[in-house]
Amino acid sequence: MNDELLELAVDVAREAAALVRDRRRERVEVADTKSSATDVVTEVDRESEALIRGRIRAARPDDGFLGEEGHDEPGSSGVRWIVDPIDGTVNFLYGLAPYAVSIAAERDGAVVAGIVLDVPSGREFTAVVAGDGSVTSRRDGDPIAVREETPLAQRLVGTGFSYVPELRARQAAGIARLLPVVRDIRRMGSSALDICSVAEGTYDAYFEEGLHAWDYSAAALVAQGAGATVEVTRGISGRELVMCAPEHGFRTFRAAVNEAGLLPQTGE
Asked: Torsions phi, psi of 223, nearest 5?
């Protein structure tokens, strides 16, 4: 059953990615803003989500739906789809790679299938939960796995920043404290693909505050199936903070994030 959900997600993501790729050849303009003037929505975000919503509704009319650009729609089947029509909209606006279409299927509150499709490159990261509870993660059909255990000082860490100025300032201060104790920090611009980078072993870890379910749901399942731990908690501003690292190095990484002041401190 979960395989069928994944098959539908892959088919719809490919169609949405083709639309996004097509529209990028035209002039792209900002249609609206969200949390701040720099947190943008394009008309293509809305077109992509409408396409995804329509295709899923046609195939599974009783399912629920949560999309970044639309409203949470309840369903009666126990399945809910969690969708980011363009993860990395600012990259898309500027014509920079990467940006992605992300679709996750949640059954009774747990994500059981998902795809993150890197639109410019065409790479597909998929994951599905089997009947025994195990998760299989792949990139373009091939199994993927996290990097081998590495000392903290040699870890390449991905991150991102809120578009809310006050939170950006606090994040920057914390990253200034984290930077000296890791190899380096990267800011790629797509949280879903950042998490998938941990899954495929091109990052050693990732963290970001200010994410929403559509940003990480599919990618977190991909990471889990590749041998990573994903924790969703609260950051220094009270917003959702996602941390992802290989299981063997997660505790060390989490401690470093905490010591950098990026987690709420006792007594705050």
From this structure: -65, -45
Q: Which domain holds residue 97?
A: 2-143
Last residue of a domain, one of 119, 143, 167: 143
Contact present, 246 and 236 (Cβ < 8 Å): no
- Asked if 94 and 189 count as a contact pair (C-beta separation under 8 A), the reply is no
pTM: 0.94
> Looking at the structure, do residues 47 and 139 belong to the same domain, yes or no?
yes
Task: Dump pLDDT digits (tens) for 199-209.
Answer: 999 999 999 99
Q: What is the DSSP letter of 154?
A: G
Question: What confidence tens digit (pLDDT) does each residue in 101-154 have?
Answer: 999 999 999 999 999 999 999 999 999 999 999 999 999 999 999 999 999 999
The total of structural domains in the chain comes to 2
Q: How far is CA 7 from the centre of its chain?
A: 19
At residue 74, the pLDDT reads 94
The alpha carbon dihedral of 85, 89, 93, 96 has a sign of: negative
In this structure, are 207 and 80 located in the same domain?
Answer: no
Cβ contacts of residue 113 below 8 Å, gap of 6+?
2, 3, 5, 6, 9, 104, 105, 126, 127, 128, 129, 221
Peptide bond into 98 cis (omega under 30): yes
